[in-house]
Amino acid sequence: MNTSSKLISFIKSQMDTAKFKYDITLSSDGNTLQGCAPGLPGEDEKVFPQHVNVDQYYSPNYSGIISGTWFNLATPDNYKVEVYLVTDDFYLQDTCDLSSNGRWSTSKAIGSGLKEIRLVQLNADKTTSFVEYPYSRFVNYTARFFSLTDAEYLNAEVPIFDVGNGQYIFYTNKVYPGLKIAKLLQRVWRAGAFEYDVVGLTGAETNIHNGRLPSSFLIPANDPSYDKDGTKALRKYGYMLNSRSWLYDIGLSLLTFTASGDYDLCQEILKRLSVEQNSDGSFDFSYDNYIGALFENYVRTGAVGWVVWGMTHYMLKTNDKAQLAMAEKAGDWLLTQMVTDPTDKRYGLLKGGNGAYGDNYAFTDTKIEWCSTEHQLSSMQGLYGLLKVTGNQKYQRALDKIHRNLINTLFDSDNQRFYQGVSSDGVDKSWALDCVTWAGMTVINDKVFSIDSTKLLKTAQSIFSVNDALVTERSEQDHFNETYSSTSPIAGFKPYSDRDGGYSGSPEIVWTEGTLGYIALCKKLGNTAEADKYLSGLEGLQNLANSTGGIIYATETYASLPWEFHTWESVVSSSWLYLTLNDVEAVFPQISFTNDLQENTIEAANADLEYYHDNLAFLKAIPKFQVSTTAATYTFESPAVDVTWRLEVGTSISVPSSDKIVVYTVKDGKVSNNLDGIKKLLTENKVFSFDGLDQILGKIAVKVKNGSIWIDTAGGSGFTLHIEREHTEVNKVQVAEDFEIAITIKFHKIVVTTPTEAISNYNTEVEPVTNFNWVAAGVVVLLVLGIVLVPGIGTLAEGTFSGLGVFCKFIATF
Prior knowledge:
The protein is an alpha+beta fold. Helix content is about 25%, strand content about 25%. It contains 15 helices and 47 strands. The strands form 15 sheets. Strands 1, 2, 3, 11, 12, 13, 14 and 15 form an eight-stranded antiparallel sheet that branches. α2 runs antiparallel to α3, α8 (about 435-440) packs antiparallel against α9 and α10 packs parallel to α12. The longest helix has 18 residues, at about 300-320. It is elongated. The N and C termini lie far apart (about 85 Å). The relative contact order is 0.07.
């Protein structure tokens, strides 16, 4: 087999590592747990009943007479058969005599429910002693029931009965709070003593029947981290690394199986993910391949981005969109992680997710507020995939926004790399390889900021390269590896650098996943000679002693926190190598970014408005709104716009002391406002509300200048829209000579079609508003698609000012 064939074979084999020898099922009626273990070897050693049998298996669904036979009893009058219904206790239903004809039977019908039948001996003191059950039971197989709360607690160990027709059952009424778990154990003779191996495992939430997942690592059985059922891992349910599937690895497997044409495996994984998806659209950071979701809500944004990209890449290649709703739900969750406060250092970036592990893996259920560079890069792939599959421009807007703020906030131009991330406290300047190579692939098609990815490649070469690494066997637990070894040195790249103190003491190892990221960047830049320098060495890792064809994750184990690198064959590294050899564009596809205003439809405009309503902090207080128009050409607002709203007031009987009030300025991704100044002016002067253009201190004629909406070119990079109100009188009192609202929006290009003329209707009411709630109402004017959206304003010419309802009224001061 060639390199690629071995890789695919290994990744496929990892789909079955968590499959136990026997499938078992578990059901509960609240008071009892009942398990079934089909497939056990019926010929295996058993203890058979010596004195009593039943005519059939009386299942929980059966109701009626229960009967059987007895034998080999010299004094049958000293024995009875007792029939119980099992719920929270054992409730005796009938006591049966042993008849002289060798039979026994209940004297009445027994109701449905779990039944236990016992042969008992009568004692002189009129008590009874248990003798046997009427079914045979296995000698080398038993079952254990556990409940999981903060840890896994053993509730009962019970026999497994052969009740005929290939049915092997076990049960208990020792039911306690927590997740219910059943384990099937096989007794084996090993090293001069009996040991018990877990050969079957199930719980109330077992999900393997919904599809398999690839276990991320092939862990040798002699490794300290190997554990088949979690009993070595602090008795934590599901803490079995050898059957753990990390979400990032699942996403890579989808990309790999798509590239290899194994679409059936993609479909199986997608089906399983549809069961695992959290209600908010996210996915857990990892799953037990057999069990599914564990009990800790540990979620990471970047991992969700990878799996969404894996899903959508498969859809783009096959046009199979059966699971599109799942992908969109996950993508929308990604958008909820975006920081929307323009004054925040993290503005426009995605937060980390949920959950944190401390010392000894103590879990804290907390929101992750920092924004990781790697998470942005990973998530942009998923959003790009959704953009390509759905055409929904909200994903393009999000991509543009993340891209712009990623570079503005996290690009280190002096060192030609990206910082590791940013929190509310500031930038994390630690050096990580993926913040160089992955970032280099993400911005390779950048025409806005013109970052040169070849310079990032040189940064990786100078800071992270490692030469002459060897794979050696070691027995210390923190560096354990007694399986793999090499005689030839390997060149590659390490995950971290000690520069700037961020990763002091970081290991000098070849990190195969990261090295393959460097190789992929080389290939995307057309530098195949540089890529080939490292490819042959990584391909050679398939030939390590005891290798099954996968690629080890690291050349040396560093098991302790914060490193957690292991010399295990890895789905991640194997997938990266396969994709690098066969479809390098499947990782970090070339994304086109834009800051241009785009021509679009009214449907897209409404989607844009909904996006801004949901994602811009100063719009969240305003109800949902829509726009409509009869104009022929439309334009819409993108995250790149600069928006200024200026209110100019001319001579008036109640003019404020200041004019040219700037309410909001949205510029270069940051929002500044003068709300305090506006609020002060409004409280110092009379404030009047009006609906539409119909009520401004009474009856006022409004005419748009020159019969059209007045648009300036804003220096060629955008436009300013003015609504100018000219002279009018109310009750023979001149109230305004000039009143103008101007909105300036700057783009790289602009296409606008506007109505030609508008004259409002008139009202005669004049209603001052006292104690006005400024915060509740807000002051927002938007220009979208060449249409002005003014809260509460009605029809203007051919366009339609769609109402934000009476919730938000336009405020004017004079």
